[in-house]
Design goal:
α5 crosses α8. The protein is α/β, with parallel strands linked by helices and 378 residues long. The protein is 53% helix and 6% strand. It is built from 17 helices and five strands. The termini are far apart. It has a five-stranded parallel β-sheet, sandwiched between helices. The chain has a domain of 247 residues: Rossmann fold, CATH 3.40.50. β1, α3 and β2 form a beta-alpha-beta unit.
């Protein structure tokens, strides 16, 4: 029986999220999730400035006599670029870290080089072994799961933690934020930190031994969080962050250039989100992003509906990305079509640590808060 189409009356989330629920007014669960996250973790205006100033004092104090007092991840996208701008503006001494997984666009490389040069920030680029990473990405594509970005996201977090620990740094400034990223259905993916899941998918479907790929086991995660007390600071939650204004600042101050859409600084991500997710999984991630912006008051629902009605990319550029994707993976057309037509699977069909990440998330959240703005100067 075909499910009746429904869409939220406040944002634009719909039944492409198989777990969505609506209240008596037609408002979806994601709107309420946004409100809860905003109440718990969004600090704007005077309160945000005061809390941010306290955070900065703590970071400076604990970073004394060290070359760097914090680490930032830098992809070249809007959020990470704005983090770099804000951190330097606040007088901190960051080490910028970039993961080169073989899929950077030329514009991404340009933006990153421009940012670190103009802000006078040291850059550490970690280049993944392509043969290993290619085999790992292929494993996830063959696994037919939605979280095909998991390996990249896992490597980024692992490298940030490892570098922080090696350099005695306790603070990682993150571009993750409530204003533009609070809404993301659980049914659309899975926690990229789960090394057991990544290893299991690769063990079943991979062929190349992973000897150099950065990994974050459950033990590492607990050690870095609770023993080393390394905390992620979502700095954009402490300022009056407006994504449109941020783009204008980055263009004017840093010569930054737009990619056209969120996370499209990576060719793989761009193709995965504009082609594979919609065609294979019936998921348009723009819907979650736009819905978050509606909830945060940065765009209207009407404008969001107009945007989602547009094609995510031109036919020509999408075909160029498709051909590049096929060539880079050494696919034949038949092999690519076979992956696209394979039945979809849940991450739960492969071994995972879902229980630990899901059920104990409140402990990790508490530890991160304790390591950041709740921490005294000692």
């Amino acid at each position: 029986m075909t499910q009746e189409y429904r869409i939220c009356t406040r944002c634009i989330m719909d039944i492409s999220d198989s777990e969505i629920t609506f209240d008596e007014n037609g408002i979806c669960c994601h709107c309420k999730t946004y409100e809860a996250k905003a109440r718990a973790g969004l600090y704007q205006g005077k309160a945000g400035r005061e809390m941010l100033n306290k955070l900065i004092r703590v970071v400076r104090e604990r970073g004394k006599n060290k070359k760097y007092d914090c680490i930032i991840g830098l992809s070249g996208g809007v959020d990470s670029s704005m983090v770099a701008f804000q951190v330097k503006k606040l007088g901190l001494r960051p080490l910028a870290v970039h993961l080169d997984n073989g899929w950077d666009s030329e514009l991404s490389v340009f933006n990153i080089e421009n940012i670190v040069k103009k802000l006078d920030i040291d850059l550490y680029s970690y280049v993944l072994n392509w043969e290993e990473f290619k085999d790992l990405q292929l494993s996830f594509l063959k696994a037919s799961v939605m979280n095909c970005e998991g390996p990249t996201d896992h490597a980024i977090v692992a490298i940030l933690y490892h570098l922080a620990a090696d350099n005695g740094i306790r603070y990682i400034f993150s571009g993750s934020n409530i204003i533009s990223e609070a809404i993301l259905p659980a049914s659309w993916g899975y926690d990229s930190k789960d090394w057991r899941h990544i290893k299991a998918v690769h063990k079943k479907l991979g062929n190349v031994k992973l000897t150099t790929f950065p990994r974050l086991t459950l033990f590492h995660f607990a050690y870095y969080t609770f023993v080393k007390q390394i905390g992620f600071i979502p700095i954009l939650n402490y300022i009056d962050y407006n994504r449109k204004d941020a783009i204008n600042v980055l263009k004017h101050e840093l010569g930054w250039e737009e990619y056209g859409a969120k996370h499209c600084e990576s060719i793989y991500t761009r193709f995965f989100q504009t082609y594979i997710l919609p065609k294979k999984f019936n998921i348009d991630k723009r819907r979650a992003h736009l819905s978050t912006l509606v909830c945060s008051g940065q765009i209207t629902r009407e404008d969001a509906l107009k945007e989602i009605a547009r094609e995510p990319s031109s036919t020509d550029s999408l075909e160029q990305d498709r051909q590049y994707f096929i060539k880079k993976f050494d696919f034949t057309e038949e092999e690519f079509n076979s992956i696209m037509s394979a039945p979809t699977k849940s991450f739960k069909e492969y071994p995972n640590n879902y229980f630990w990440f899901e059920k104990l998330s409140f402990i990790v959240h508490f530890a991160h808060r304790k390591a950041t703005h709740k921490a005294p100067l000692t």
